[in-house]
Automatic annotation (TrEMBL):
Region (Disordered): 114-137
Keywords: Cell cycle, DNA-binding, Nucleus, Repressor, Transcription, Transcription regulation
Localization of this protein: Nucleus
GO CC annotation: RNA polymerase II transcription regulator complex
Name of the protein: E2F/DP family winged-helix DNA-binding domain-containing protein
Domain E2F/DP family winged-helix DNA-binding: 18-83, 140-220
Segments traversing the membrane: none
GO molecular function, one term: RNA polymerase II cis-regulatory region sequence-specific DNA binding
PANTHER family given in the database record: TRANSCRIPTION FACTOR E2F (PTHR12081), TRANSCRIPTION FACTOR EFL-3 (PTHR12081:SF7)
Upper classification of the organism: Eukaryota, Viridiplantae, Streptophyta, Embryophyta, Tracheophyta
DNA sequence: CGATCCCGCCAGTAG
DNA sequence: CTACTGGCGGGATCG
């Protein structure tokens, strides 16, 4: 048989496809690789080489997954695999924290009528919609992708928005909503985040009913503090839009038909059973039930695991069969530069 | 074209 | 200091 591992030929612009390198795909592959028995710790270097990507990319994926509880940082270069079962707990925490912040924010809003709080940065003007949250974000760690991910999720958990345009999310979230450059950067980051959250099926890409623009729909259900650990089942049974606690008040958006319009196919994950849960959260693109020797599944940085059946282009479909060998020679090596340190 | 979002430079942080 | 992290935004691709 021929080699299934991408080689230098990938330098070929005709073969190269940006989609084969997406964060969402990397996330899916990461999950397939570690979601199994006996996985305890994850070495970033090892993961990077096994997945055929630069280590830099692992940070992106891991930081986002950590916000959802799937992995936890254990130490330098080491992460702990927690699994899908941790998602409910993580979401509950995010929701509680989000609700708390929202209250505080509302509190500040009224009290900050003519008061200009510190803000610590250089700009950070008061957000028209959501006054900067109490937690001053000025440290590097605080304006990270992880925080962005958390805030993005809180937006869904603490408001009744079912569908959100990334641009709106960027404006709603704490930070400079007026600075065009900052906003652009934030949106770019949200694209990354949305892609990996999509690979977990926490959200789904659709297009807004009225605006005809790409938007994301929350699929993760509503978290609830009670029954520590599990998500509110009644609410997650079916995608529920009517939340109790409301708005982060999206300026526009008249969610008229609060009920989706042309959405279907993918319905709410049903929580409850550990296996069901894992089955649902499991990265999409996996059609196999639960087991699967993960040895025959498409893998590799260049194995186009089509997210939707819109395989229309059925371009070069490469399949790597042995996870443990799809390392080394993987990237185009445009200009051997960014080699790891 | 505008929407997406990959890539890797290089500043910040941990050890 | 070195190695690890991870903002950040240029610019290639996609649709």
């Amino acid at each position: 048989m021929s080699s299934s591992v991408p080689q230098e030929s990938d330098f070929n612009p005709q073969i190269y496809s940006r989609k084969d390198k997406s964060l969402g795909l990397l996330s899916s592959n990461f999950l397939k690789l570690y979601n199994r028995e006996g996985v305890g710790t994850i070495g970033l270097d090892d993961a990077a080489s096994r997945l055929g990507v630069q280590r830099r990319r692992m940070y992106d994926v891991v930081n986002i997954l950590e916000s959802v509880g799937i992995v936890a940082r254990k130490g330098k270069n080491i992460y702990l695999w927690k699994g899908f079962r941790e998602i409910p707990r993580a979401l509950n925490e995010l929701k509680e924290e989000g609700m708390r912040e929202k209250v505080d924010a509302a509190y500040c809003r009224s009290a900050e009528a003519s008061k200009n709080k510190e803000t610590g940065g250089s700009e950070t003007q008061t957000d028209p919609l959501v006054p900067s949250l109490p937690k001053a974000d000025s440290c590097r760690r605080d304006k990270s992708m992880a925080l962005l991910t958390e805030n993005f999720i809180k937006l869904f958990l603490c408001s009744d928005v079912g569908i959100l345009l990334l641009e709106d999310a960027a404006k709603i979230m704490p930070g400079d909503a007026q600075n065009p450059t900052a906003l652009r950067t934030k949106v770019r980051r949200l694209y990354d985040i949305a892609n990996v959250l999509s690979s977990i099926n926490l959200i789904e890409k659709t297009n807004h009913p009225e605006y005809r623009k790409t938007a994301y729909r929350w699929l993760g259900g509503k978290a609830s503090r009670e029954s520590d650990g599990s998500l509110d089942q009644s609410a997650s049974r079916k995608r529920v839009f009517g939340a109790e606690i409301t708005n982060y008040s999206l300026k526009r958006k008249k969610t008229d038909s609060s009920m989706d319009s042309q959405s279907h196919e993918k319905i709410m994950p049903v929580y409850g059973k550990q296996d069901e849960l894992e089955n649902e959260y499991r990265c999409k693109t996996l059609e196999h039930p639960l087991k699967s020797s993960s040895k025959a599944i498409d893998f590799g940085p260049f194995a186009p695991v089509k997210f939707r059946r819109e395989d229309q282009e059925n371009r070069h479909m490469r399949q790597v069969h042995d996870v443990d060998t799809m390392s080394s020679k993987y990237r185009p090596e445009y200009h051997n530069r960014g080699t790891q340190l």
